[in-house]
Design goal:
- The complex is a heterodimer.
- Chain A is built from 15 helices and no strands.
- By secondary structure, chain A is an all-alpha fold.
- Classes of the chains: A mainly alpha, B alpha+beta.
- Chains A and B meet through helix 2, helix 3, helix 7, helix 12 and helix 13 of A and helix 1, helix 2, helix 8 and helix 14 of B.
Chain lengths: 318, 537
Amino acid sequence: MSRYIARRLLLALVTIWLASLGVFLAVQALPGDVTTQILGQNATRANVAALRAELGLDESPWRRYLDWMSGMLHGDFGSSLVNHASVGAEVGLRLRNTMLLAGVTVVLGVSLALVLGVVAGLYRDRWPDLAISSLSLVGMSMPEFVIATVLVLLFSINIPLFPAVVTAGPDARLGDLLPAIWLPSIALTVVMAAYIIRMLRTSVIDVMASEFVTTARLKGISPARVVLRHALPSALLPTLNVIAMNIAWLVGGVVVVESVFNYPGVGLLTIDAVHNRDLPVIQTIAVLGAATYVLCNLAADLAAMALNPRLRTNRRTA
Amino acid sequence: MVLSSGVNSGDGRERTTGAVSRRGLLTAGAGAAAGAWLLTACGSGGNADKAAATAAATGKAAAGGTLRIARPPASSAETLDPASSLSAYEYLGALYSRLVRRGSDGKPAADLAMSWEMSDEAKTWTFTLRDGVTFHNGQAFTSADAAYTLTHILDPATKSPQAGVLSTFVAASGISTPDKNTLVVKLKAAHAEFPTLLMHYNCYVIAKDSAKTTATKGIGTGPFKLASFTPAGPGKVVANTDYYGGKPVLDAIAFSSIAETQSRINALLSQQVDLISQTNLDSAGVKTVQASSTATVVEVKNAQWYTLPMLCTAAPFTDSKVRQAFKLAYDPAQVIKLAVQGHGTIAHDNPVPPDDPYRLDYTVSPDPEKAKALLKKAGHDKLTLPLYTSDYDSVLTPLALAMKDSVAHAGITLNIQNAPSDSYYTKIWMQKPLMTSYWYVGRPIDQLLSEIFHSGSAYNESKWSNPTFDGLIASARKETDDAKRKQLYQDAQKLMVDQDGTIMPFFASRMIGISKKVVNYHESGFEFDYLKIGLSA
């Protein structure tokens, strides 16, 4: 078991490193660099050259990549090429905001999805299932910016309940952000919950038809206990990976929703950094994104083991 | 999205970090459009065809109040140093004053300088400065501050966009201060309109030796004092009760940074902000805002001018007959209608704005048949060319489509190529033979002609080079007789219309989204009438 985890962690590090390399190469391929973005059209050749030298961009790209890598291994993510601020501090602040949004969304989305998914599975082809399934299909097929825009139209403009955008900066106090996280959170919940509901419904239907559930029923166990104690743990197994991928998607995929609501999280920072070709910031966010995916997957696999005794024993005997 | 300037402040364009290019980055480009459609569709469609309002409400403002402005987060490196290429424009006019501001007639008007006179055949300029002015920190304003401001702009380390223009005429050694209210500038070359160069927004006056601190402290002599400032983030200025021009109606102006155009519109509609700055609403945005009961659209007339530079150093435009043919081939009346729904003024290939007293009234009527004949003479029976455009500004692509349509009668086929907006001005501009481009109105005539049309200048986007034209500009600068100087600048304009490499179909309005509560809004550049603007009771 511990050897298995060690191997997974090593693989995770390699994956993260490959992601950072891929992003580095992709940014190199973008036209223009940070100096042309900073100086813009006013740039004279002399000013561009001076700024490039100032920022160390006249060194070879590989040299810069290696410098950044070795810095990161020492816990130093470097400084932004645009405003020379510490990348670690900047990304950390944005990550706090995104985590707040993601946290609320996960709690809202996962609990909603679990309830609705189980209900849909238990009432297969009856009206609760039809309602839940068709609504989740609608949620899945609408892009999040459409959902976000409709929410703004309804609940900020027509009925002014929530703010349409966040006007505070990234260092806003949590109390200032709180009223503004509900609409983005609902927009993300709709997309996220839809996938989990679909998956869980199928899985509940399968498990409810299986022999051990029939046995449990014949033993006269109450229906609620059959579902919660016997069917749900098995039904959750295939769903766990979907939940994990959705949580990982939240941290990376909030870009569009954050930009609609001007929410000062990692997503807005990503857009800005890519636009400015601010490599240290882009690299740090890429590593962070890759790490989130890898860790969420690992957590899902470990949780699956905890839920499924067969997986545990197999590992031990193997 | 994208160099530095204001509606009338007269430098290039918005910075590359502005709204449009950001939007281009997201697949949500389509999203923003879809969003606008949704809002329009769900709002009251009946208003959609109403013409845009042309003026903001006037009337009595309630005393006090905070005006909330949404702006694009220009750059996390933005600064309050007015000389910088990364200055936060919206703050500058509130915090600082210039020696010379732009008067309502387009001519220099007194601000920190009460009067000025030239001597030595326009080679020496003496400015008499206002007495009794203090900076926000209580320090008295003197000629030493004015001299320091000029040397700070000229300092290569500042990388000021205005340095290139000023350094042709001024060297730090030529600036002297005989007493605390007098500034004398001895020019390297005569310039009869030298004060117009000081109207630029890079020329706001800062205190002596404050170059380092002004970036974050914003200490000036203007109508508002800085309360807080975050680059690419929120900030606030509060009324300066000691301002020499009087006391502003407002208590404060609060700024917030919102990246997406659609989000800025949403903030206006949900009454989180009162005005959206640096956002020229496209026709969907105009309809969305007009459908609202709380916000409206103000049209700032002739705020930007659109161009199609024909690169004079690249085939087929090396031949002046081809350039002339293109100018004759299109119908400006049709182009202005298609590209901006008529919200503008036909430019007749002359970049001098309609309200500029120097503008030459000279038009050449479209003549597709003559264009065909000229092309034939140049050896082209039929001409097929790529025309580059981008989402950088909302008018560029409609302009490209309108031109394609309009020149087809003259046997010219344009293939429209859409280029990414965030590298449009680094990869396409001044490199492809034919493209769409635009500038903000506001350069004084000499700066306009010499910066964008003079041989070899950095912004000469068509790379046109004409010694007669260059000579006319040089003579005009030396000419101290006003009438004769005007004649020389007008001769230069005729030469441009007839021969230069730039198609200029129209000056377009800028469409500004504003709350109905705002009264006495008047914008010039990113400056308002800071004393009068207010909120209705």
